[in-house]
């Protein structure tokens, strides 16, 4: 599979959500990722009373919703969470999960920003959450989040969708990541995704292998 084989998430939101649902049904990869994040990010989150997080391709909240509840809100007094997610179906499902988990949150949909990018939001005393309806490159170039630097940046199976990897990583390291911040990447190589039988059962072998590193 090449980048040109991947669907445009803005024009195929429903199709992408259906394909993702199939992947989720036949894979335990997300459970593996949750355990890895819990073991590795909890000690880092415990160092902050106020934590800022950017998730590149945050998806429907299966993983990130867990991180928010079990790591960020559990260990930090307040969390600023920004998610970049072009799929409307995923953003709305994420917000539904947040609303189901707590009756104290206020949810907003399709709010305008000065640069023209729409955001969905979830706000409470302990979290300011914005989900940006755009791709990562536009998020960076528009400076829609302002001069924010993030203590933790997460890219979970989203690097495949970056148009140019090197400039994107430059933006992450030199514009978005706070001093001594943490970048975590979960990425499947072509060897990881070698399929020897139908559907997606092979995905059960995938586990995050990168250690937490500091800049």
Automatic annotation (TrEMBL):
Protein name: Methyltransferase domain-containing protein
Organism: Basidiobolus meristosporus CBS 931.73
InterPro entries for this protein: SAM-dependent_MTases_sf
Domain of life: Eukaryota
């Amino acid at each position: 599979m090449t980048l040109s084989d991947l669907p445009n998430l803005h024009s195929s939101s429903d199709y992408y959500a259906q394909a993702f649902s199939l992947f989720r049904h036949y894979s335990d990869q997300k459970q593996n990722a949750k355990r890895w994040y819990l073991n590795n990010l909890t000690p880092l989150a415990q160092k902050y009373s106020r934590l800022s997080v950017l998730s590149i391709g945050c998806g429907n909240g299966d993983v990130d919703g867990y991180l928010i509840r079990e790591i960020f809100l559990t260990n930090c007094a307040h969390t600023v969470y920004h998610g970049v997610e072009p799929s409307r179906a995923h953003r709305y499902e994420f917000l539904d999960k947040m609303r189901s988990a707590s009756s104290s949150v206020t949810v907003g949909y399709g709010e305008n920003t000065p640069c023209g990018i729409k955001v969905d939001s979830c706000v409470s005393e302990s979290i300011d959450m914005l989900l940006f309806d755009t791709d990562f490159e536009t998020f960076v170039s528009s400076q829609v989040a302002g001069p924010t630097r993030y203590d933790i940046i997460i890219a979970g199976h989203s690097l495949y969708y970056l148009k140019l990897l090197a400039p994107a990583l430059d933006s992450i390291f030199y514009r978005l990541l706070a001093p001594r911040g943490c970048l975590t990447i979960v990425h499947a190589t072509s060897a990881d995704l070698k399929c020897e039988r139908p559907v997606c059962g092979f995905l059960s072998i995938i586990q995050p292998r990168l250690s937490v590193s500091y800049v």
